[in-house]
Amino acid sequence: MKLSVSGRATAAAAVAATLLATGSTAGAAPVPEPVAITAAPDIPVAEVKAHLTQLQSIATANGGNRAHGRTGYKASLDYVKAKLDAAGFTTTVQQFTASGRVGYNLIADWPGGDTNQVVMAGSHLDSVSSGAGINDNGTGSAAVLEAALTVARTNYQPTKHLRFAWWGAEELGLVGSRYYVNSLSAANRARISGYLNFDMIGSPNPGYFVYDDDPAIEKTFKDYFTGLGVPTEIETEGDGRSDHAPFKSAGVPVGGLFTGASRTKTAAQAAKWGGTSGQAFDRCYHSSCDTTANVNDTALNRNADALAYAVWTLSA
């Protein structure tokens, strides 16, 4: 969903057009160049889905899953890292051990911005061992990846520093994100002005849930959905069960989006969001049927655009 051009941007464009058409008046004071207004871009859902197709192919080629310690997880990380490296990010692979297997986090920093004010967006990249994990959490991982690639493609230069992350071993108890947070010095934790988490953002029978942790981050997401005319509810099903929890415990402001897991959609929720009441938001949660067929494109598109809106707004 594209955002409308602001009045200031329209006015700036008009000034530029006038100068091009008429030139400046002789002897007059020079007219300053229009200020560039950078609005959050549309994230093409087709590109997000292309990443999901790749994650599905990786799972299919590696025993049907992308779980911690398995070849499918490492191949997923390598795929994401290669995209980011080619786009100009500085990437770091952080290694840890959980349940006797080596795990990995991937951190990607966009050069520039005030490193004393870091805006982070992250998602867990691992699946459970019983399936490919395309909604949980290929959707969050693919949307974060495409947002990062859009930063590079548009050469976005925010005031704050941007950092993106893909966590390992979330399904074993937030192991990767907790390892990362614990590895930070107190000073580096304090430099993170906000962490945004995206876990299951394309559920096939979706709801639109916003974390109610940091008020400013919560309002940013709600403002976006209000602009679409899409009502939201406070996220409760996954509260404390995803990778924002270690950041929150360390005092970092957090927020995020979610479209529902195994809880049942009520009649009231179906009335305002569509879908089927009496069914789970995701009937394939942690199951082998969590494939590319298990994604609602509209929900994925809206949430990917909301992700970009929050990243651009909070880092400007």
* Binned strand content: 15-25%
- Overall geometric form: globular
Main pleated-sheet profile = 8 strands, mixed
What structural category characterises the helix and strand content? alpha/beta
Let me know the number of strands.
Answer: 8
User: How would you write the strand order of the largest sheet?
Assistant: 1-2-4-3-5-8-6-7
Which regions have little confidence, pLDDT < 50, spanning 5+ residues?
Answer: 1-37
Helix content: 40-55%
Q: Over the alpha carbons, how many angstroms does the gyration radius reach? A: 21 Å
- Count of separate DSSP helical elements: 10
If you average the pLDDT, what whole number results?
Answer: 90
Order of helices and strands: HHHEEEHEHHEEHEHEHH
Distance between the termini: 20 Å
Structural overview:
41% of the residues lie in helices and 17% in strands. The two termini are 20 Å apart. The chain is of the alpha/beta class and 316 residues long.
Summarize this structure as a short list of keywords or feature phrases.
single chain; eight-stranded mixed beta sheet; 316 residues; disordered N terminus; 8 strands; alpha/beta
